[in-house]
Write a structure and sequence with these properties.
Helix content: 55-70%
Shape: globular
Number of domains: 2
Number of helices: 11
Strand content: 5-15%
Number of strands: 4
Oligomer: single chain
Structural class: alpha+beta
Distance between the termini: 14 Å
Radius of gyration: 22 Å
Strand order of the largest sheet: 2-1-4-3
């Protein structure tokens, strides 16, 4: 990210107002822009130089060229290492990297073997993306990583196989209702595994707490376990919201189309890919923008030692902020 470039001057976090939902949607659209996959090493170095000039005061104001340079670095460079994230695991590659796996999971009538294969493949991709983009100052141990992976795989496979065997037994429902429920099984599996994965990978934050800062001055005020619960809970919720449009809308639309139009298998596959791809590009920024990255919260919702904090001026601190994480 652009934050990895050294200099005494801070960069604006975004050219959009991240305190508003629409501002976060536009920011998310930029972060996940697949055109950023076309940047070359020379583009990255040129962007570094421009950002360095701004952060060291040689360029006074943000310009369209500087915003583009920031976008290049934010979508390519890891903020801790300062090195490019491996291409398939960048946020700008999120839609394309997940396309094959999502199409596989949403393929009708997979059977048990196919269901297990695609759920395991999906969790393997998730681990690779999480590892490539993780906070390098507090890396997971190999044991934590392996535990998180196997728990997520167990959750997703158990839910998928269990629901696939349960839905046909719901004789009180109409055949169409059972068909719709069957197409939503991958969504339930992905969501349950995603929530399990978040709480496992960030369990240390809940146990030890995360740093909170004065909402106005940015001064660090201490560590809060309650803030960690909010941060991890919102992140888990965001995983559900991110998965919902991609895993729910395409299968439901495909069911409706199949009732009206007879399709061969190749046509059905092409339609399925088109629905997933278009839904991912259009809806993903709206899901990603649900929660702000830096969350503000009233001190009364945290531990009691934050309730009566004051600034040097004697003014009471009413709100604090924390980094929600990914």
């Amino acid at each position: 990210m652009a934050s990895s470039v050294s200099g005494p001057r801070d960069l604006p976090e975004s050219q959009y107002d991240l305190s508003t939902y629409w501002g976060r949607v536009k920011h998310s659209a930029g972060v996940s822009d697949p055109r950023m996959l076309l940047v070359t090493p020379s583009n990255v170095e040129h962007s570094r130089e421009l950002i360095s000039q701004y952060k060291n005061g040689r360029i006074k104001d943000m310009t369209p060229e500087l915003w583009k340079a920031k976008k290049v670095l934010d979508s390519t460079i890891h903020p801790d290492t300062g090195k490019p994230v491996m291409l398939p695991f960048r946020m700008s590659s999120y839609v394309l990297s997940n396309l094959v796996v999502t199409v596989g999971m949403l393929t009708p009538n997979l059977g048990t073997i196919g269901t297990l294969f695609w759920q395991i493949t999906n969790q393997s991709l998730n681990v690779a993306i999480n590892t490539a983009n993780s906070n390098k100052s507090h890396p997971l141990t190999p044991t934590q990583l392996v535990t998180s992976y196997f728990m997520a795989v167990t959750a997703s496979c158990s839910v998928a196989v269990g629901l696939n065997s349960l839905v046909p037994k719901l004789k009180s429902l109409s055949p169409y209702s059972r068909l719709v429920l069957g197409r939503l099984v991958p969504f339930a599996a992905v969501v349950s595994a995603g929530v399990v994965n978040v709480f496992l990978m960030r369990s240390e934050e809940i146990r030890k707490g995360i740093s909170v800062y004065d909402d106005e001055t940015g001064k660090e005020l201490g560590v809060s376990k309650k803030a960690a619960v909010y941060a991890v809970g919102e992140t888990a919720t965001s995983r559900v919201l991110n998965a919902t449009p991609i895993m729910v809308l395409p299968p439901l639309m495909l069911v409706r189309l199949q009732r009206k139009i007879r399709m061969s298998k190749p046509v059905e596959l092409a339609v399925n890919i088109g629905l997933i791809l278009s839904t991912s590009f259009v809806v993903l920024p709206f899901a990603l923008g649900t929660f702000p990255q830096r969350e503000s919260i009233d001190t009364k919702r945290l531990e009691s030692h934050f309730w009566d904090l004051k600034r040097d001026s004697g003014e009471s601190i009413r709100k604090v902020q924390f980094n929600r994480g990914m």
